[in-house]
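Task card 7
Instruction: Convert sequence to structure tokens.
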Amino acid sequence: MKYCIKCGTQMDDHETKCHACGARMPVSYSNKISKAVNSKMIAILLALAILFMAGSFILAKQISPGARAYRALADGNIATALEIYKDKVEGRQRQTAVFVKKMGTYFSDLEAKYKEGGITDDEMKQKAKDMLAFNVEGITEKAKKYVSDIDAIQSVEKLVAVGDYKGAILKLKGIEHDSIKYEESQVKLNEVGGLFEEQVVAKIGDPKDIESSLVAIEELNDALNVMPENANLIDKKDIITSGYVNQVINGVGEPKTTEALASAIAMIQTAQGIAPGTVELDSQLNQIAEKYVQNISNEIDSAVKNYKYDVAKTLLQSAQSLLPSNDVVKQKAAYLEEHKPAELSELKVLVSHNYNVDEDGSAVDSFGNQYTSKNIAHINASYHDGYVTFNGGFTRLNGTIAVNDSSDNYAKMALVILDENGKELYRLDNIKRTTEPLKIDLDVSSAKQITFKVENTWATNYLLLIDFMLYK
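Output:
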């Protein structure tokens, strides 16, 4: 721009004649004026820019780091906000207080907007996740709750789509009363609960026997753990339980053998656990238990009389597992303890050579059989005879012998059981790795001393004495 030298009217740079007074403008003067004006304008603009930058710098300096971190967060610049927070805010009490206060306001505004529907679930969840990065007390807990509850609601639809109504219900029940999603969760809970009930009823069908009734009751118990107040499922369980009790009562019959009586007791006890206080079941159990105890008592007596303590012990253990409080069973336990035989591993050794008790309580024979017992002994007859002698005074001796897996393939040995005079009470020759485990049952009533002797054949020989018992 330029001005008329005569009247001062403003003119465009390219004009050579004033459009107001008609005066002609010298070319050199026009350029000079224009350049002067332009220089002034540039100077003014430059001064304004400098002032603006200085003001911005001063303003930025005046805004606290806490406020700047919050502003970056509100603008969605999470990385910048977190950088300012970690560098300038965290650990500084005053700046943290500013940030926490503004964060609280920000979160409250978000909640209000979310309740009004101005923010979607995904948007709210993402903003809550953003705030978790700052780990601010009071804000973190609320943010976590939003993420968790929104996740739960969103996952319900996926679970329902694949028919996992139980999983969906458990997700919905995890949403607490104070959650913004609580009302929505209750609506969905009613919908999914109906679907779950239909699913369970269809699955259990109409059971006709004991086995299917037990499966149905188990399914209903599982369902009621999820929905304990569902009246329809409660009624269904009552009906099936009543039918199951009748099935048990009629299905037990009149068992005679010990095994059949034990099975009947177990069946009735299971039913009592499902329908406690049922008089018919209690009466039936008492009758069958009386017969069972009589049978098992006779069998234990017979086993003890025939020097089969391990059999008697197994029978007692079965009775104790079924009827631990039964007086007769308790009496038989005391009786068996009185007639307990001595274990070979517990006897005082009078003299021995290459004899030892297995401290680990386990051994393996040449057939790969594994033995686990505290009553296992070894006699080593490698290149020399091995033996052990105990005091007698017993009537019977029984147990199992086997070749230890450590013995040589070409090993041979002989087991001899002697009395105090060297009289052979038992002898087994040509024992080798291919000799199968053998049970020994021997009358030793005449022996004042008992000796186990293993004769060697110049090889590595180990004989196992497994669970040997000596009866008074």
